[in-house]
Every structure is written in structure tokens, then in C-alpha cells.
Specification:
Number of helices: 12
CATH topology of the largest domain: TIM Barrel
Structural class: alpha/beta
Number of domains: 2
CATH class of the largest domain: Alpha Beta
Strand content: 5-15%
Shape: globular
Low-confidence stretches: none
Distance between the termini: 23 Å
């Protein structure tokens, strides 16, 4: 069956189940994960919880800066709040350790520290009484600086160049918006495989080639510390996401330690308490190592989240929690897939 036809069938099925209320029942049925015993011959079911991860929520509909539209996010949260028991990640981990994980639990998280968490997300989560954790790349909070991938995205968006010759030997057309969006994605994928120092040099060279090196277009993109305090007052938990957002497997262990401890110290100084949760930048399996996990634990964090897809049970390491979600703007399909992932994973 072709992909488009399959998607149409799934969407129609999801709409029917959602309208009938069956998706909620399916979600409750999927509350427990079946874990195989020795040799896979026996199974026991354990409480399991997913962690949703978001970055940006806004109404810009800008393909260079992908985000979840506000209306879509509100519909997702309306469903989540009435179907799941939404708790702060750190609390879920504590309950998982004590054996008191509640049924149908779910956590919501946001990475990097974009200001739309305050302007677009917070009113919605407050409306539905759904708490969340925000992981800050602290070097950008309260400054005019932004992560390298945002600078590169803006350069691809604004460039007057019609093509670019990449350092890895590819010549990419930039003649149309579609070309530039595709070129940006290929460039991001290539850069994330580089060691951090080489990545920074390559980014600087690409910005020069694209003719867009200034950062004046990013005013107000990231949270300030007053914004962080406002989020805390609304019940958000604040976690650490390094200082400068390097991929931690691409830097020295000395740098890893300074990024982990530096972000923890900046949050503790600005917010008056030490963060308990940490998020690995990029967060795929090759983006952090056992040594990185050890340094996170030694820094006093009680849990850490990756971007590896899956759900979490008492067998999941608290320092390698899995996150993800169905990236569906159609809420019935989002709801059905979220229930299905809980059963299948």
C-alpha cells in the first residue's frame, strides 16, 4: 500500500475512533507495557509513561524555523489533559523509583528556551492545568545570542545567493524557497556529524558564503531570566540543556563537564534552586556516551532525557529517558498514534 493511501486510511480510522470516544479507552488500555521475561517466554506488564518533546510553538508557519501552530498545540493539549495524567517529569521519575508511578501518566517537555514557551505555550498549559519542564541552553538566556542552527536557518532564509558550494563537495541550488529549505536540512544533517570545533568553523564559513552574518533578526527569540521566573511562577520546572548546546559526544570530556556544570550553576544562581533534570543536546544515541551520562549523574541531576524515541518503564535508566511524539497536526491521528506507540513500544 502506498504511503499516501495508508495515511488516508489511518486518518479516517483515527477520526472515527476519536469521534466515538474510543481513542480515550484505547489510551487507558495501553497504560502498561509488556516486558519479556527470560528467553521471551513470559511477560509481565509494568506501568509506562511517554515524554512529549517540543521546541517551538508559534503561528509564523515559517519552513526555515519549523514549529507547531498554536491552534494545533492547544487541540493536542486539550486531548492530553482530559486523557492522561500530566505530571512534571521530575515527579514521574521519583514515582517510578518508588514504585508509585500513576496510571496513564505523561510528561511534557520543551527544549532550548525559546520565548514562545512563555508567550504561546504557557497560557494554553495553564488553561488545561498541565505542567511541563523547560530545558534551557543557558548561554542564550537573557542575551542577544542564539544557537548556531538558528543563525544558519536565518542565513538560508535571507541569502541572495542562488547556489552554494559546501565544504563536503556538494553544490546546492538556492534558487527557490524550497531549494533553500532542502539545502538547510541537508546542511544541518551534515554539520551534526562534525566535531564541535570543526562545526563552528564550518558554520562561520557558510554564513560568509551566504552573505548573512549579523544576528539583528533574532531580537526576543530566546527567554530572558525574568521570563524564566514567570514560567516558574506558573508551575513550570526548569532543567538544564548545557550552556552552548554542543553535541556532547563531539567535544572533550573537560568541555562536557563545563557545559553540564555551567548550565546547572547558571540556573541555580538565577533561579535560587538547583535543577534536577538535564536534556542531552540533539539527544540521539550517538550524541552522548556512557562517560557523558556519568558526568551528568556526578553533577547531581536525578534524571536526564534523550531524543531517542520510545516510552519509559522502571527498566528505563532515569539518565537515558526516551522522548518523542506523533508529529501529527490532525489531532485524532495524533491521539491514535500516541496510544498505539504506548502499546507497540
Amino acid at each position: 500500500m502506498r504511503g499516501r493511501a495508508r495515511a488516508t486510511i489511518v486518518r479516517a480510522l483515527a477520526a472515527g475512533l476519536y469521534k466515538s470516544g474510543a481513542v480515550g479507552g484505547l489510551s487507558r488500555f495501553s497504560d502498561y507495557a509488556a516486558l519479556g521475561g527470560p528467553g521471551g517466554l513470559s511477560y509481565r506488564r509494568y506501568p509506562a509513561f511517554p515524554i512529549l518533546v517540543y521546541h517551538r510553538v508559534d503561528d509564523n508557519r515559517d519552513p526555515f524555523f519549523p514549529s507547531v501552530p498554536t491552534e494545533v498545540f492547544e487541540r493536542q493539549m486539550r486531548f492530553v489533559a482530559r486523557t492522561y495524567r500530566v505530571l512534571i517529569l521530575e515527579e514521574l521519575v521519583e514515582r517510578m523509583r518508588s514504585g508509585g508511578l500513576p496510571r496513564n501518566a505523561l510528561a511534557i517537555t520543551f527544549d532550548d528556551g525559546y520565548r514562545d514557551v512563555l508567550t504561546h505555550v504557557a497560557p494554553i498549559l495553564t488553561k488545561y492545568r498541565a505542567p511541563a519542564s523547560v530545558f534551557l541552553a543557558t548561554g542564550f538566556i537573557g542575551t542577544a545570542e542564539v544557537p548556531w542552527f538558528d543563525r544558519l536557518a536565518m542565513a538560508f532564509k535571507l541569502t541572495k545567493a542562488t547556489f552554494i558550494a559546501t565544504p563536503w563537495g556538494e553544490t546546492m541550488s538556492l534558487a527557490s524557497d524550497g531549494d533553500r529549505v532542502r539545502g538547510l536540512q541537508r546542511t544541518l544533517d551534515a554539520l551534526k556529524r562534525l566535531q564541535d570545533e570543526e562545526l563552528r568553523r564550518t558554520v562561520d564559513g557558510l554564513l560568509e558564503s551566504l552573505g548573512v552574518t549579523e544576528q539583528r533578526n533574532f531580537k526576543g527569540l530566546m527567554l530572558g531570566w525574568d521570563d524564566v521566573h514567570a514560567l516558574m511562577g506558573l508551575g513550570f520546572a526548569i532543567g538544564a540543556h548545557t550552556v552552548n548546546h554542543p553535541i556532547l559526544s563531539r567535544v572533550s570530556l573537560e568541555r562536557v563537564r563545563s557545559e553540564i556544570e555551567g548550565s546547572r550553576a547558571m540556573i541555580e544562581s538565577a533561579c535560587g534552586h538547583r535543577p534536577r533534570a538535564f536534556a542531552y543536546p540533539n539527544g540521539q544515541s550517538g550524541d552522548y556516551t556512557a562517560a557523558v551520562v556519568r558526568l551528568v549523574r556526578e553533577a547531581g541531576f536525578t534524571c536526564a532525557v534523550s531524543a531517542r524515541f520510545g516510552i519509559n518503564t522502571r527498566r528505563t535508566s532515569p539518565w537515558e529517558l526516551r522522548r518523542g511524539q506523533p508529529w501529527e497536526h490532525d489531532v485524532p491521528t495524533f491521539a491514535l498514534k500516541l496510544a498505539w506507540y504506548r502499546m507497540a513500544l
